[in-house]
Amino acid sequence: MIAEETLVQDLQHPETRSQAFKVLVDTYKQRLYWHIRRIVLNHDDADDVLQNTFIKVYRNIEGFKGESKLYSWMYRIATNEALSLLKSNARKLDIGTGELQDRMLGNLKADVYFEGDAIQLKLQKAIATLPEKQKLVFNMKYFEELKYTEISEILETSVGGLKASYHLAVKKIEAYLKEGG
């Protein structure tokens, strides 16, 4: 795998940008897709958000200063794009994001790209009951196995706050699953 610094330099240089962007997409598309998918729950929406994320990365790479890791910066863009899509969808339907989440969960079983079993569906329903920040922290820590320092960079918040959010999320999920979901 290409070193991140070299990749950023290649992305910021007009003559190497195109090839470097292909490397960037190949390197990160899978991880970003699943990060987005856990937020929007729908394959088509996840694909759209992923595409928008890469477009924003391409357009804004020259302004990337390297103050955070490249993938942290991209995760932040992907997270913001996914949350914006949810808010936009809720506005279009004239419902709250909570109700939208309930509808999306209802559609999850019918999604041909959802490969989970009944237990996975229950877990997704439990995660959907969490407040937005706890949901993001739980997904990044549990599914993506990111370190708190990495999540801190992505969400621009303190490690202590993240640990508290994760702990609360786990407790709420456990309680939901014990109640029978």
Task: Please explain how this structure is put together.
This protein is mostly helical. Helix content is 76%, strand content 0%. The protein is built from nine helices and no strands. Helix 2 crosses helix 4 and helix 4 packs across helix 8. The longest helix is centred in the first third of the chain and has 24 residues.
Task: State the gist of this model.
By secondary structure, the protein is mainly alpha-helical. The protein is built from 9 helices and no strands. The model has no long low-confidence stretch (mean pLDDT 87).
Structural class: mainly alpha
Strand content: under 5%
Percentage of helical residues? over 70%
Main sheet record: none
Rounded average pLDDT: 87
| Uncertain stretches of 5 or more adjacent residues | none
Number of helices: 9
Shape: globular
Order of helices and strands: HHHHHHHHH
End-to-end gap:
42 Å
Q: What is the alpha-carbon Rg in Å?
A: 17 Å
Count the E strands: 0
Key words describing this protein structure:
181 residues; mainly alpha
Itemize the secondary structure elements and their pairings.
Elements: H1 4-12, H2 17-40, H3 43-60, H4 70-93, H5 97-108, H6 118-128, H7 132-143, H8 148-155, H9 159-178
